[in-house]
Amino acid sequence: MKLKVAATFSEIIEGWRLVYQQYLKSTLIGPNPFSIFTYPEYIGRNSAVILGRVGNKSVCSVSAVLDSSHLLPLDKCFHDELDGLRNENRKLIEIGLLANKSEKASPFYIMELLSSIARFGVYSNFHDYVIGVHPRRAMFFKQFFGFNQVGKSKKYHGLRDADVILLHASGQDFETLAQKASHAVYFEETDLKFENRFRFARIASLKPFLLIANVIAFVKRTFQRCFSPAAAVE
Questions:
Q1: Domains of the chain, each with CATH number or no CATH
Q2: Which of 32, 50, 60, 124 is the most exposed place for a label (fewest CB within 10 A)?
Q3: Which whole-number Å values give the CA distances from 35 to 16, 120, 212, in the listed order?
């Protein structure tokens, strides 16, 4: 498998379509007309999408977003816990939208994807990693990447009230374990060119890119409905 930073809008959609397909199979979401799944916070200049490819086909994907505005997707469920980390002057980077084309995710693929996010953290100078996972998957992230649980398990309204726990890993633990040695993260060369990653702000407002504008509007409307006070009561 070869890792690639999504550098075009079509590559972004490739990754988020894998997420959609996996979440739909898991009944975490319902169908939508674009056949993609993402969060509004990932649509911006402070995010990156990584694709894992075998030949010309994308077989897995992961996304990450920097906490530059103190607003992450996980804030909808774990705002107090994340603020606790921010109050410790942590520079957070959220790992999310992890998807694998195969029904049984390869641990090797997951480890490769997370190592790519460690590189994005180093590139961006954000070194505290957070991720929301189902409780039964927590042990994998704790054992292999040095994550620790923050707070209690909660229901995530945006994913049909699935059980989610918040995990956090400091850069020293995560970046070292993700590549087996910190030297690899900081000094080994790769094909991951984060400076060439697709950034929505460059073209999202231009008239010719109507599909991009429609996707952005759809994602924002969907999550406004999911996390409105009325939806939370229901």
A1: 2-233 (3.40.630.30)
A2: 32
A3: 9, 27, 14
